[in-house]
Design a protein that fits this description.
42% of the residues lie in helices and 17% in strands. The protein is an alpha+beta fold. The termini are far apart.
Length: 990
Amino acid sequence: MIPTIIVVAVIVIAFVYLSQVYADVLWYQQLGFLEVFVTENLSRIVLFILAFLIMAGAVYTSLRIAFRSRPIYAPDSAIQDNLNRYQAQLEPIRRLLMLGIPVVLGAFAGTAASSQWQEVLLFLNQESFNKQDPEFKMDYGFYMFTLPFLSFVTGFLISVVIISAIATILTHYLYGGIRLEEKGLFTTKAARIQIAVVAALFLVLQGVNYWLDRFDTLLNQGTWAGALYTDVNAVIPTKAILAVAALIVAALFVASAFLGRWRLPLIGTAMLIITALLAGGVYPSIVQRFQVQPSELDAERQYIDRNIELTREAYGLDDVEVEPYTPTDVPQAGALGDDGQTTTNIRLLDPNIVSDAFSQLQQFRQYYQFPETLNVDRYEIDGEVQDTVIAVRELDTNGVPEGWVNEHAFYTHGYGVVAAAGSTVQPDGRPSFLQSGIPSTGVLGDDTTYEPRIYFGEESPEYSVVGAPEGRPAAEIDRPQSENSDTDSRTTFKGDGGPDVGNPFNRLVYALKFQSTDLLLSNQVTSESQILYDRDPVERVRKVAPYLTLDGNSYPAIVDGRVKWIIDGYTTSANFPYSTEQELESATQDSQTAEGLATALPAEQVNYIRNAVKATVDAYDGSVDLYAWDDQDPVLKSWQNVYPSSLQPFSEMSADLMAHVRYPEDLFKVQRELLARYHVTDTDAFFFNSEAWNVPADPGATSEGATTTAATDRQPPFYLTLQMPNQEGAAFSLTTPFIPFVPAGQTPRNVLYGFLAANGDAGTGEDGVKSEDYGRLTLLDSSGQDSVVGPGQAQNLFNSDTEVSQELNLLRQGASEVINGNLLTLPIGGGIAYVQPVYVQSSGSSSFPVLRRVLVSFGENVGFAPTLAEALDQVFGGRSGATTGDQENVGETPEDPATPPTEGEAAPTPSPSPSPSPTPSEGGTPGGATGDPAADLRTALGDANKAIQDGNAALAAGDFAAYGEAQDRLQDALQRALDAEERVSGSTGE
């Protein structure tokens, strides 16, 4: 029975394992990326087999030779008697050990080697850079592709020789080929020859290693990256000497095998060790101490120049356009008249704040959800390109009734795109939706012009079973019939989105994969069913392009009648000569990643990065398209040689898709981190670090007293449509400011030294044609002045302004929360302006933030008003000359947002602004306007105080209806107080 049980267990385990392989084959085949799966796994298998055979063969051969050449007779001694007992005990299992030990070691070696499949494939399929390093005049491709492969092979062979040597020595010792005698160490001729050959092989490999170490010096990461003066003049020559010396000593070991004398090889080995210590450590230290340090700048000048030049090239910073910028801090009336393309698109809707507003106004069902952080994109509306804040209404499985059928067969997808204008809101502070509702309607399209169903998204279920034969009633919950309907419509998935589970075998395979008997037995699984899984867009692309590092932020766009997730992919390396390394995780951390609103890149050390691929994932059927965006990147071209059918040229991209491509955020973060120091190209200034910059801390994060680190409190970059100074037109750009560098622990000087913008407009209106301006990095350098207000100073100006503080205190009455939005930096009006939206959120679980005020600063001048247009006018002498997105709201009296709609209820449409209330003499209410602003302010504050008291009493009594009525009166009173305070300020000329 025991053998039978073992055989059955092995068969079951093998079937389960192979079923998972089969499931992967089905998944890749359905997506059209089977070559990725096959190539990777065949490469791993081949490497495993080769490494297994080499390691196992070498160890077995060593053991076999040592055993067969053992002495027949050995002198009697106490040590030999003990060894004889060990031999007797091992003899019954000797054959098993001589096979088992090599097999086990070979398996470990094969597993380790198989993990290097990418290095091997890149070496075999490498493309040239057609550029040479400044020291050895080798093509960059040698360092990127060949050197890692040679280092891997050399390291592996050295480990094989060392393990074989250990096996050889132990076997000879155990069987008497090596003995410790009174006269010293005794070895048989066979043992001596075998040990000498193994030692010679080790020394030859070590010589190769020394030779390769010469090239590795160009990858050093010290004060400056690459081979410096000491490396070039001391380390590289001595490595060459050591390589030759190792070969000489290897020859001495071979000679000793035949001469029978160990003296020469032992002396040679000792000399090699001493030379390695002196030449590898002492001599370079002497050169560094007595030749370099006394005149370090002169000695290192040319090597610092190499580091600057090649670091900028490796990170795509060599074409940064630096423009001196001397901003004024005195606002002039009408100064923004020429900045209309920028001011029209100043984004007032903060994508990190308004998710609750989207949820309360556009969710409609408990089984829908919006992400915590929304995305910024742009769309052409009425002939004008407008920045938008966009999200998709995804399925929320927490709101789905429990049960396998509900969770995996009925509730399968989300529905619809929701988008709001970025530069304006409704008069009551709600988002101004451009695309909304159920059915999906708006200026971006409707159910007849785009497919709104979201089967693949960032919050999709683990798996869903979809599809049915013709004529079978639709089972999937599609969407509410309308916003106010209690009835849900049904649908059947019509695409090709996942592997077929219509046959019993495939059902069994996926039942095992997801450990679900329901999947195997449910009548919801039909002959036409498909199973959708691995539905997160980023993870989906990661599986079909394992050679890419993917941006942490995928974003949706309506493209050619479909909702597409767009993901940026990077090729990276840590082997670019003379380039400074960055840890991707640290470089991409900021205040948003610290708060969990964004995802940093993995903790990977790189010194080369390219945005090589633009990927899309269809939200309906999950199809993946990879476009070779940087088709000049040799790393990507090498991977195209590996996977010839996986990537499409970017010329296959439609004009509509091109219009929604943007500059990737994580790449920009890495670049700005480097540019903070490497914007300096003067060697002296770079050496003394006298012109280094920093990315400023996020004023919103640090002002709350949060405990942060230098990496996690950085201000995130922002997407804006703006026109940079001296440029002809506006572009959708990714932007960041810079402030002076200060050592850790010192208080930063929060003055603006630089402003970087990356042009993210790729579209030209033509299919497959990329804009020449896409990716252009423009750096405004204002470091010659120390008086330009930085982001932190601007936030302090806002916080310390008396009038702003008074109005914010009014907004905070009644347990309302004031939320500062993102602080945008804008080079307009000949200077630097800062714009920050201010949101107010009342208490209550169903409340959401609404835009109440806009803060603006220019120099030391601060504006604070209900609209951006009014705030700019306050700053620029009563007339800014700006055209803003919210100027139609000027003069509107905003209503307080009503209680958000319940599930299934439509969001209320804002009513027109009410007429002024009559005065008391005309029969007005106590809260009406009297014509006396001071009296109105006192009355409004009294009404607010009364509403607070009534609300607290109602809350204590558990009367929530009365509490809600008191909150409405409180909001009305606060608004009247703000209006009256503005009239008071106006009447006094303030």
